[in-house]
């Protein structure tokens, strides 16, 4: 699986931005996908996830402002970000988790995209 993220840039507080992540490779084995955010000196934090069944999960800090979605036909993952705040600034990474079952044991293999920088000015 390969992931190619895009859509980052500079936006003013209160503005909107949409991130995209094109997925290629062994797509059929993907169980879930998500977006994570990382700022300098801090760990990579979950922003939102979506499963193959369409179940979505958003971090409390972005609920009501960000929406994760997936276009299965275009093999693309999106993150619509509205009402952006300066604290949303960071490098956003898309993530895909492949699930493989061998001898009754489930193995999860995460793959990361290259990251796209989002800067929200106050």
For this entry, what is the oligomeric state of its chains?
A: single chain
Category by helix and strand content? mainly beta
Radius of gyration: 15 Å
DSSP summary, beta strand count: 11
**Sheet with most strands:** 7 strands, mixed
> Which series of helices and strands comes N to C?
EEEEEEEEEEE
Number of helices, where a helix is a run of at least 4 consecutive DSSP H or I residues: 0
Low-confidence stretches: none
Through-space gap between termini: 37 Å
| Overall pLDDT | 95
C-alpha geometry: elongated
Helix content: under 10%
Beta-strand percent range: over 45%
What does the model show?
This protein is mainly β. It has no helices and 11 strands. The strands form 2 sheets. Strands 2, 4, 5, 6, 9, 10 and 11 form a 7-stranded mixed beta sheet that branches. Strands 1-3-8-7 form a 4-stranded antiparallel beta sheet, with no helix packed on it. It is elongated, with a radius of gyration of 15 Å.
Architecture blueprint of SSEs:
Elements: E1 2-6, E2 9-12, E3 17-24, E4 30-38, E5 45-51, E6 56-58, E7 66-71, E8 76-81, E9 90-102, E10 105-112, E11 116-121
Parallel strand pairs: 2-11
Antiparallel strand pairs: 1-3, 3-8, 4-5, 4-9, 5-6, 7-8, 9-10, 9-11
């Amino acid at each position: 699986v390969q992931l190619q993220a895009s859509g980052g840039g500079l936006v003013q507080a209160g503005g909107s931005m949409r991130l995209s992540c094109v997925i290629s490779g062994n797509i059929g084995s993907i169980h879930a996908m998500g977006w994570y955010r990382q700022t300098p000196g801090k760990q990579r934090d979950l922003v939102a996830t979506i499963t193959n069944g369409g179940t979505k999960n958003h971090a409390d800090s972005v609920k009501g402002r960000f929406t994760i979605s997936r276009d299965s036909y275009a093999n693309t993952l999106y993150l619509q970000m509205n009402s952006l705040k300066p604290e949303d600034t960071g490098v956003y990474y898309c993530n895909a988790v492949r699930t493989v079952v061998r001898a009754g044991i489930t193995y999860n293999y995460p793959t990361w995209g290259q990251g796209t920088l989002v800067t929200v000015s106050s």
